[in-house]
Fold this sequence. Notes:
alpha/beta, elongated, 40% helix, five-stranded parallel β-sheet, single chain, 13% strand, four-stranded mixed β-sheet, Rossmann fold
Amino acid sequence: MEFAFLNDWNVILVPDGKDFQQIFAAQRAAVAMGNSQPTAIVYRTTKGWQYGIEGKASHGAGHKLCSDGFDEALEPLSQIADIAMPRCQADNQRCEAGQKEEIVEACFWEALGAIRSLLENHHAMVEALAARLRNARDRLNGLKRKPRPNAPLLETVFDTATGAGDSIPAELELSPGQSTTLRGELGRVLLYYNKASNGAILSAAADLLGSTSINTAAEGFGEGYYNADTNPQARLLSIGGICEDAISGVLAGISTYGHNIGVGSSYAAFIAALGHVSARLHSIGNQARQAIFNEPYRTFMLVCAHAGLKTGEDGPTHADPQALQLLQENFPRGTVITLTPWDPQEIWTLVAAALAKRPALIAPFVTRPTETVLDREGLGLAPATVAAYGVYPLRKAHQQTAGTVVLQGSEVAYAFIQEALPLLDKEGVDLEAYYVASAELFDLLPVSEQQRIFSEKQAQRAMGITGFTLPTMYRWIRSDRGRRMTLHPYLKGHYLGSGQAGMVLAEAGLDGQSQFKAIMRYLEDL
């Protein structure tokens, strides 16, 4: 009650949540409240009431079938309805739990039959219940509710993503030499989809709306935070401040209705961990729903912002390499897609590719600092649109090569391209470099296509360079030798300190000079 009241909700207490007259009175009072605030009705009840296992003990399994407690719990029904419940006897002996399963199963079926006969023989009761359902249906139909004019059109988001192909909208194209952030480009991409769908994307953040650039996704709609009564056009939600688990839970719930995509943003260090439960339950629910409705999953998004080592002076508590390992390849195939772009130019392509697959969760990992947009063509790098494959050859060798390097993480990719690669070129090293932009998008390709892009033979010979944890490289680096030579933030056995990005990368041995030396050692050993 205090929690709801402190957050400006109307609060109504029902002292006895088993008394229907009190329940009805509270619900009528809530409807008549008349102000613009939400209303919480708090019912005081007893867990397991009249079941024989009450309070904190009423958890998990209940009474075993045909145990004394089972019979006692059903005794009131037997008295009122004058029906005999089964006793689960075999050779005049009560069956113990877990014994003589076929008798217990028959007893269970008999109990269900007894309940069914009760309903069949009390037509007036069943009709009264059915009448309540019909009346509720008629009241709802009488309201003649329909979407407001210019209501959000969620399917437009997925249709736009599916039709994206290899093209990037003109307003989202970036030019070499331009300065921008990965988080900022993600905000612009989400705004593009929000405009196309009349506001189907609802966003929230901890205390980082501007810092993670997620507020960009709501520009041009109502200013401030959403309020159903006073500010319904706004596309930003206020959900408990710095409370990533609440943000994730609310946004997963909103997404489940199938009218909006909830997008929650915070430091990757926190939202990947605190949003994990909501992500898992949302995925479970979406999969289970397909047993009834053969429809695509209902997507929500956790933006793992300020990801990686370039987070700055916040240090090891916030610049977290571990966050990706919590989500990447950690869910049933097709339910969750993680995105790990290195270049702001890849954001549109990766988000479109992920939305087109319609997973239950999309988790983009975007960094904090401003980056320079590189001339990929001039540097001999693959175009940004090939990121849609999930894994792609960042730079192909000009001739048969003995070495393959696999990169993942924006900080290590920039250091490789801007610092290590010129040193390798100076030494005449013809290296094959691959980038992992999304392990799950790669997994969704046909196996033959996966082998064409990145073969098992290459994985056996490759070394890795990652801004995340070493286990996230195991998929791509198959040999013990390659794993020993793989560079990662914890290679030196400790959490990294605070400081400017270049200093932290140097401490980890992930700066360009260190990458160059490690690659040369790898080639010599190979």
